[in-house]
Amino acid sequence: MVSAFGSRITRTALPIIAVATLGVPEGMMGIMSAAQFAPGVLIAMFAGGYIDRHSKRSILIVADLVRAALVVSLPIAWWLGALTLAQLAIVGAGVGAATALFMITDNAYLPALISKQHLEEGNAKLETSDAVAEISGPAAAGSLIAALGAPLAVVIDAASYVWSAWWLARIREPASTTVGAAPVPPGRRNRTPALADLKFGLRTVFQHPEVKWLVLAHMIWAISGGFFMTLYSMYCLRVLHLSTATLGVVIACGGVGALLGALLSRFMKREFGIGPTIIIASTLSLLAALLMPLAAGRSHATMLALLITHQVASDGFSVAYVVQAVTLRQTVLPTDVLGRCNAAIHVCTNGIVPLAALTAGVIAQYAGITTAIWVGVLIGLAAPVFLLPLWRLRTLAKHD
Question: What is the mean pLDDT of residues 93-99?
Answer without folding.
Answer: 85
